[in-house]
Amino acid sequence: MNMTDANFWKKCSTCKKPIGFGARYYVCSVSTCNGERTGYVFCSISCFDAHLPGARHRQAGAIEKMAPKSATETSSRTLIKPAPVAGASTSTFSGAKPVPKDVLIIASRLKEYVTARSDFNTSASVMDVLSEYVRVVTDRAIDNARADGRKTVLDRDFDFLHKT
Asked: Could you tell me if 89 and 132 lie in one domain?
């Protein structure tokens, strides 16, 4: 099935599959890959991973984004609000900003750790799962700091991790 320009936003830089309007896509965290001149976009984490050997980055991560909802919408930098997770804080404060859903884990360091501990490989999708876990744990620590009347999250706000 041939798709015309009116039916999709851009094509994946790796596999050339169309990325539809309003669809999730990924960009490289390295600025030279996501600039106006290069503008690499990937339809999946596996396509992003296929880009890495040729790009020869020291450290890179996939950043999840949303394509514009229509051809007239120009911004491809829509922030994605994380889905609510069981146990996560749902409280907000006045003037709350949208929360970006960027990868919070340094992929190369985690992969080095897993390999050193076990000689196992690490899937790229692990970074998204761990990032979401870090968000949930951090939300609980923010709630603890707020309950203590502070505007600074301290190490002790994470003490619930060590309690049984």
From this structure: yes
Instruction: Return the CA Rg of the chain.
Output: 19
Question: What's the pLDDT tens digit per position in 94-105?
Answer: 445 676 778 888
Q: Does 109 lie in the same domain as 39?
A: no
- Domain of residue 162 covers 79-164
Contacts of 62 (CB under 8 A, 6+ apart): 26, 27, 28, 29, 42, 45, 48, 103, 124, 127
* Total of domains in the chain: 2
Residue ranges of the chain whose pLDDT lies below 50: 1-5, 75-95
Q: Are residues 96 and 60 in the same domain?
A: no
Closest CA relative to residue 12, chosen from 83, 62, 58, 57: 62
Euclidean distance between CA atoms 132 and 82, whole angstroms? 8
Q: What is the pTM of this model?
A: 0.43
Cβ(13)–Cβ(7) under 8 Å?
Answer: no
